[in-house]
Write a structure and sequence with these properties.
- This protein has about 150 residues and is of the alpha+beta class.
- It is built from five helices and five strands, in the order E-E-E-H-H-E-H-H-E-H.
- The protein has two domains: about 45 residues, no CATH class; about 80 residues, Orthogonal Bundle (Arc Repressor Mutant, subunit A), CATH 1.10.10.10.
- It has a three-stranded antiparallel beta sheet, with no helix packed on it. It has a two-stranded parallel sheet with strand order 4-5.
- It is globular.
Length: about 150
């Protein structure tokens, strides 16, 4: 499989985007921004950060276990501007409550940050917990989507 790498600037810092023949395989923070604006992922992420895109329409091809794919598919169903708790997500996918840590681990292993909205999963009390990109970025993403109010300094 051929892997293509591009990077882009975002309001949260550079994003590195990896894609293979079947679609996106990984998006993460970091890298040196020099993205191709014609690349569909760069274009859609730019639109998202500009506030004009609420849903991504990109082929996704991350590697993971069947359980991880099940959890990641459930992330795709969380609407823009909404949040859900880890417990609620566990119930949605029909996993016993005692497997909530396994669900959280699968969310934490999400290789498609921003595009696959793991940032929309919060603690039972609404607290911001766990995000591979860092809690500050999670807060900024949820603020961009209107799920959180901007913090005034």
């Amino acid at each position: 499989m051929t892997i293509k790498q591009t990077t882009m600037d975002s309001p949260l810092g550079p994003l590195t985007i990896l894609s293979g023949d079947d679609g996106l395989t990984r998006i993460g923070f970091g890298g040196n921004a020099a993205g191709d604006p014609a690349d569909p992922a760069v274009r859609q992420l730019t639109e998202y950060f500009e506030g004009t895109r609420t849903r991504f329409e990109l082929p996704l091809a991350p590697q993971g276990t069947a359980f991880q794919h099940r959890v990641w598919a459930a992330l795709d169903e969380i609407a823009y501007g909404e949040t859900i708790s880890y417990g609620e997500l566990t119930e949605r996918i029909g996993v016993p409550r005692d497997r909530i840590r396994a669900v959280a681990a699968a969310i934490g292993a999400n290789p498609l940050l921003v595009v696959r909205p793991c940032h929309r999963v919060v603690g039972a009390d609404g607290s911001l917990t766990g995000y591979a990109g860092g809690l500050d970025r999670k807060r900024e993403l949820l603020t961009l989507e209107g799920a959180l109010q901007p913090t005034l300094l």
